[in-house]
Backbone:
């Protein structure tokens, strides 16, 4: 079974369609702590994914797909 045939993938596709036209300004307005919550540091590496169209729901859907695939 390919990942794209899974219901978890289809949920991500639908979620993407719902977020596609959402401007980052709106996401920051809705979640003032976004910059801190969607960033992490591992040693010398700093990853800031707050400037992408990602939400808590997005992460939940991605984790669901990862679990389904055994990642």
Residues:
């Amino acid at each position: 079974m390919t990942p794209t045939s899974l219901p978890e993938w289809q949920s991500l596709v639908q979620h993407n369609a719902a977020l596609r036209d959402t401007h980052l300004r709106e996401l920051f307005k809705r979640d003032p702590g976004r910059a801190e919550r969607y960033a992490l540091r591992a040693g010398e590496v700093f990853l800031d994914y707050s400037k992408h169209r990602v939400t808590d729901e997005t992460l939940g859907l991605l984790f669901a797909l990862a679990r389904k695939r055994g990642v």
Observations:
- The longest helix spans residues 56-69.
- The chain has one domain: 3-69.
- The two ends are 15 Å apart (CA to CA).
- The helical segments are 7-19, 24-30, 34-37, 56-69.
